């Protein structure tokens, strides 16, 4: 049976209360029955109502359905059922025959996929061509309008930035949050949401702790300026660099549109999910999943979003190996991707993987990427034979040639201690997010196993 | 960083006040800026390029450290997947039952099992403040290696040699614990060092001999007494120590001093136990024997309504070995209890009860079986009996209320109660809930419910789904479910898992 581990189920919980409630429901005696087969897991549980709640989980796509009235997704019953199966390591009653309420749901799910295919087949090629042409015209018009909007926004931003530079960084702490919020809002109106995010990051600077904010502020200013300059010369840039610049400014490509495009790279591979970073801002949850293609040696970043605390439905779970086809967003340094087809999850690394043997090598590789993409901050890397060391009040990772790179101060102390406990201070192969001046350890690669540092 | 310090002045003060000087910047950047005229454009371009220039040119430091890596091999067996899952369950619980964690810890320690490396840090972080060095056996050699780097995980009591180098307060704590757990080791330790101890420390250490006092302490006590008694002008602290030794010796049945006092006291007893009229002889007795002075008893009774003489005799009964009194009543403890209970001066009963901890378990059992729990401090005595007898005594009594139950359960929250006694406890809890004044009480008895989660039989899991007979109304049912069933079910479920795992292993 294809089941999720305890740690993986934790990642699915929409919030702490659901997690706790889910754990409480992981006790076998609370369920009236539970069964599974290769594609679906289901169970019934007596709630406060007359009829028991019917909970089901699509195991291949990690999708949920429950008859309870909860608006959370997945609900505590879905989580509880998965926790229960994780505890039993998948050893639960199995049957090919599904109850009607389970097979109905599963058949509807697969019917949805077929429907899309069928509807494409039903329309004649001429009609499709005509529709496509019409859509392309409308799209081009929309894009032109949008380009003008962004152009106006960029012009305003350039002036604003120069004012800021003229006045000096020391005036920033007095300007207050609304000053940056206003500019960000104008950029959102101009449909340059990526730049709006950069402007908002001024409000995250800590002016009290030390003077680090000054360098960070200058970094933000530099990144914004680089984007403005690139936009001003957009037509002089190669097409893929244009795509990268536009994506950073805020031209989002819808997943559906991306998958419809023929000029994008798709890579089918066993993708090791190295780790996940989740941030919540103004009700928007953003999930960054870092992946590593075992055969292709490609790195990928799969972003998922949800609003209002809803859980994100994704088969990509940290610490697992997803056999999947990834579609990459167009860029000259492709990194961001989306899952085109998910095939299955593998428990162990199907082949040994190797990485860099020194920080110098890691740095050289990262600089190659930086030379092509000056906005890049973080590069996932595998480095071999590094150990945790403590030096002048900070934690570092030291390679075989005794070169040290600081572990990012934002990394949880417990995670560093856990790394020490597992490695015993000995050198191991580590997946890291390399940030040029610091690193974030993600997980340990040991033989054919990947241990996530969560 | 070197170019950043150059850019910093302009960046901080602004291009108006401090235009950027290009000379210190690298040549390629200077060239790229050659055609720019606007000061802001120059600064922004310089800053953007310098940022990338410095990022690309980052040079990481090289440092040599001594190797401190863990190189040993674990000799203990790792926990099974099920035990690992139980530990993870405890780590995930927001309000974990500490008695069950202790239970699992004990089982793992007894079976010499260690946890997986990934659990070492979460376990130390969550449970070290409560269990301290008791966690060391389950974290293995690697865990111990790890604790050396984190002062929060070091148990200072173990780190120092407390007895030889510790502070007086730490030494006293150490000795007190040792005397309670290993009285003979404590005796040997003090026997070797008493002559070099300060007067105050010696007095404090000797005071700990009231725990686990036995005949084996007599030679040592005599030796110290003889030595100190030879001092011609003793300090107050020495006199106090001598008095403590005499009090201690009263508790050693058969020793000369105890025999002597018992002989003196015996004729006096009927005057206290059988008559309310205290004759003149009583006052003369205290005057003549000087027992009060020798034992260092207060000259005036500190208790209101208790006469000086009654206070003195009660103090002597507290220290005197109970066998003397039992002998006096011809070994008939029932008669003795009757005599004491009948007396209005409950202070005598209390004194005798305190001395009973030196009696045999059988004598204590007879005493407890024939007396009412609510009338004296019974807790110190009950623990001398087997659990079976403790359960029987409590089940026999009609007067078990929440206070008595709580005292009993929390006295030793590591017991495994029989199913019968567990059911009895449920009935006591039900009676607490239906009492109008206690309706909400159990909701706040976290410690009691946690301890019961460890002590009660897991056979109750089936029974908890049914309401006990007294629980009839919806309000009572709600309260029962919330304050009794929910916490107990959760704990007993874990207990059942721990038991099944270790019983299987055995």
What is the structure about, briefly put?
The complex is a heterodimer of chains A (454) and B (506). With 454 residues, chain A is α+β, with helices and mostly antiparallel strands.
Describe the model:
The complex is a heterodimer of chains A (454) and B (506). With 454 residues, chain A is α+β, with helices and mostly antiparallel strands. Chain A folds into 4 domains: 6-119, no CATH class; 129-249, no CATH class; 263-346; 359-452. Chain A is built from 13 helices and 15 strands. In chain A, a hairpin with a 5-residue loop joins strand 11 (394-398) and strand 12. In chain A, helix 1 runs antiparallel to helix 3 (76-87). Chain A is globular, with a radius of gyration of 25 Å. The mean pLDDT of chain A is 89. Chain B folds into 5 domains: 2-56, no CATH class; 77-159, no CATH class; 162-250; 260-380, no CATH class; 386-506, no CATH class. In chain B, strands 1-2 form a two-stranded parallel sheet. The mean pLDDT of chain B is 89. At the A-B interface, helix 2, helix 5, helix 9, helix 12 and strand 10 of A face helix 1, helix 3, helix 4, helix 6 and helix 7 of B.
Fold blueprint:
The complex is a heterodimer of chains A (454) and B (506).
Chain A: H1 6-12, H2 16-24, E1 31-36, E2 40-45, E3 53-58, E4 63-66, H3 76-87, H4 100-122, H5 125-167, H6 172-175, H7 177-189, H8 193-200, H9 212-232, H10 239-249, H11 255-260, E5 266-281, E6 284-293, E7 299-307, E8 321-328, E9 336-346, H12 359-372, E10 379-391, E11 394-398, E12 404-406, H13 413-423, E13 428-434, E14 439-446, E15 449-452
Parallel strand pairs in A: 7-9
Antiparallel strand pairs in A: 1-2, 2-3, 3-4, 5-6, 5-8, 6-7, 8-9, 10-11, 10-13, 11-12, 13-14, 14-15
Chain B: H1 2-13, H2 27-32, H3 39-56, E1 77-78, H4 81-92, H5 98-110, E2 113-114, H6 117-131, H7 136-147, H8 156-159, H9 162-165, H10 168-181, H11 183-193, H12 199-207, H13 218-229, H14 236-250, H15 256-265, H16 269-273, H17 280-289, H18 291-295, H19 308-319, H20 322-328, H21 333-342, H22 346-355, H23 361-369, H24 379-382, H25 387-396, H26 402-411, H27 419-434, H28 446-455, H29 460-463, H30 474-505
Parallel strand pairs in B: 1-2
Helix pairs in contact in B: 1-3, 4-6, 5-28, 5-30, 10-11, 12-14, 13-14, 19-22, 27-30, 28-30
């Amino acid at each position: 049976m294809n089941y999720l581990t305890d740690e993986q189920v934790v990642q699915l919980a929409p919030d702490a209360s659901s997690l706790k409630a889910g754990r409480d429901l992981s006790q076998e005696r609370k369920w009236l029955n539970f069964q599974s087969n290769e594609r679906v897991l289901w169970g019934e549980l007596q709630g406060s109502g007359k009829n028991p709640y019917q909970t089901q989980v699509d195991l291949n796509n990690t999708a949920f359905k429950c008859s309870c009235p909860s608006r959370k997704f997945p609900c505590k019953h879905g989580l509880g059922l998965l926790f229960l199966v994780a505890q039993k390591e998948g050893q639960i009653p199995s049957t090919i025959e599904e109850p009607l309420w389970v097979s109905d749901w599963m058949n509807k799910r697969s019917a949805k996929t077929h429907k899309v295919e069928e509807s494409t087949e039903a329309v004649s090629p001429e009609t499709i061509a005509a529709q496509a042409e019409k859509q392309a015209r409308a799209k081009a018009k929309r894009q032109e309008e949008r380009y003008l909007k962004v152009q106006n926004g960029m012009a305003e931003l350039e002036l604003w930035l120069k004012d800021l530079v003229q006045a000096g960084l020391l005036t920033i702490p007095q300007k207050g949050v609304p000053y940056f919020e206003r500019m960000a809002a104008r950029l959102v109106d101009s449909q340059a949401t990526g730049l709006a995010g950069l402007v908002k990051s001024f409000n995250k600077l800590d002016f009290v702790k030390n003077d680090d904010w000054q360098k960070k502020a200058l970094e933000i200013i530099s990144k914004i300026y680089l984007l403005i300059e690139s936009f001003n010369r957009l037509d002089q840039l190669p097409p893929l660099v244009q795509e990268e610049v536009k994506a950073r400014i805020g031209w989002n490509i819808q997943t559906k549109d991306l998958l419809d495009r023929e000029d994008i790279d798709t890579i089918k591979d066993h993708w090791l999910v190295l780790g996940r970073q989740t941030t919540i801002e103004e009700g928007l949850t953003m999930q960054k999943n870092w992946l590593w293609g075992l055969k292709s040696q490609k790195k990928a970043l799969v972003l998922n979003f949800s609003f209002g605390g809803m859980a994100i439905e994704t088969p990509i779970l940290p610490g697992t190996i997803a056999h999947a086809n990834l579609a990459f967003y167009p860029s000259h340094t492709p990194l961001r991707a989306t899952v085109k087809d998910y095939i299955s999850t593998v428990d162990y690394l199907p082949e040994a993987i190797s990485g860099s043997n020194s920080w110098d090598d890691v740095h050289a590789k990262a600089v190659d990427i930086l030379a092509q993409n000056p906005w890049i901050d973080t590069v996932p890397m595998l480095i071999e034979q590094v150990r945790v060391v403590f030096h002048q009040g900070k934690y570092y990772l030291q390679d075989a040639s005794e070169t040290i790179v600081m572990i990012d101060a934002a990394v949880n102390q417990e995670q560093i201690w856990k790394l020490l406990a597992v490695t015993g201070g000995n050198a191991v192969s580590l997946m890291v997010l390399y940030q040029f001046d610091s690193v974030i350890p993600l997980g340990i690669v040991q033989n054919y196993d990947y241990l996530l540092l969560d | 960083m070197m170019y950043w310090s150059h850019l910093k002045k302009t960046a901080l003060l602004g291009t108006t006040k401090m235009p950027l000087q290009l000379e210190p910047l690298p040549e390629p950047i200077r060239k790229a800026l050659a055609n720019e005229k606007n000061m802001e454009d120059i600064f922004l371009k310089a800053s953007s390029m310098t940022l990338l220039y410095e990022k690309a040119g980052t040079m990481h430091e090289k440092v040599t450290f001594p190797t401190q890596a863990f190189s040993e091999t674990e000799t203990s067996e790792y926990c099974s997947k099920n035990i690992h899952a139980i530990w993870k369950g405890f780590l995930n619980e927001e309000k974990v039952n500490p008695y069950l964690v202790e239970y699992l810890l004990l089982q793992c320690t007894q079976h010499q099992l260690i946890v997986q490396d990934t659990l070492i840090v979460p376990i130390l972080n969550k449970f070290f403040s409560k269990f301290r060095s008791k966690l060391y056996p389950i974290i293995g050699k690697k865990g111990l290696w790890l604790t050396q780097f984190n002062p929060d995980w070091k148990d200072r009591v173990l780190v120092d040699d407390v007895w030889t180098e510790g502070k007086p307060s730490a030494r006293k704590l150490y000795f007190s614990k040792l005397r309670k757990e290993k009285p003979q080791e404590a005796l040997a330790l003090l026997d070797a060092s008493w002559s070099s101890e300060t007067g105050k420390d010696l007095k404090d250490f000797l005071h700990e001999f009231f725990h686990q006092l036995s005949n084996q302490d007599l030679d040592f006590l005599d030796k110290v007494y003889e030595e100190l008694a030879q001092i011609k002008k003793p300090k107050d602290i020495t006199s106090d120590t001598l008095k403590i030794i005499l009090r201690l010796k009263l508790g050693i049945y058969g020793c000369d001093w105890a025999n002597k006092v018992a002989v003196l006291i015996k004729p006096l007893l009927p005057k206290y136990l059988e008559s309310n009229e205290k004759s003149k002889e009583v006052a003369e007795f205290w005057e003549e024997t000087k027992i009060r002075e020798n034992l260092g008893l207060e000259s005036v009774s500190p208790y209101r309504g208790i006469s000086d003489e009654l206070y003195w005799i009660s103090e002597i009964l507290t220290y005197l070995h109970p066998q003397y009194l039992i002998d006096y009543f011809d070994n008939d403890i029932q008669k003795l209890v009757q005599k004491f209970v009948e007396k209005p001066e409950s202070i005598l009963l209390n004194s005798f009860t305190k001395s009973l901890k030196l009696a045999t378990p059988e004598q204590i059992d007879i005493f407890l079986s024939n007396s009412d729990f609510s009338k004296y401090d019974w807790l110190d005595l009950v623990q001398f009996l087997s659990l079976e007898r403790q359960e029987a005594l409590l089940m026999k009594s009609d007067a078990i209320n929440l206070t008595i139950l709580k005292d009993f359960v929390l006295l030793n929250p590591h017991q495994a109660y029989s199913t019968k006694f567990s059911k009895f406890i449920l009935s006591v809890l039900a009676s607490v809930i239906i009492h109008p004044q206690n309706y909400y009480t159990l909701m706040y008895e976290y410690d009691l419910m946690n301890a019961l989660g460890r002590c009660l039989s897991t056979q109750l899991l089936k029974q908890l789904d049914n309401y006990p007979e007294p629980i009839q109304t919806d309000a009572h049912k709600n309260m029962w479910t919330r304050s009794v069933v929910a916490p107990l079910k959760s704990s007993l479920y874990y207990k059942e898992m721990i038991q099944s795992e270790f019983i299987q292993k055995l």
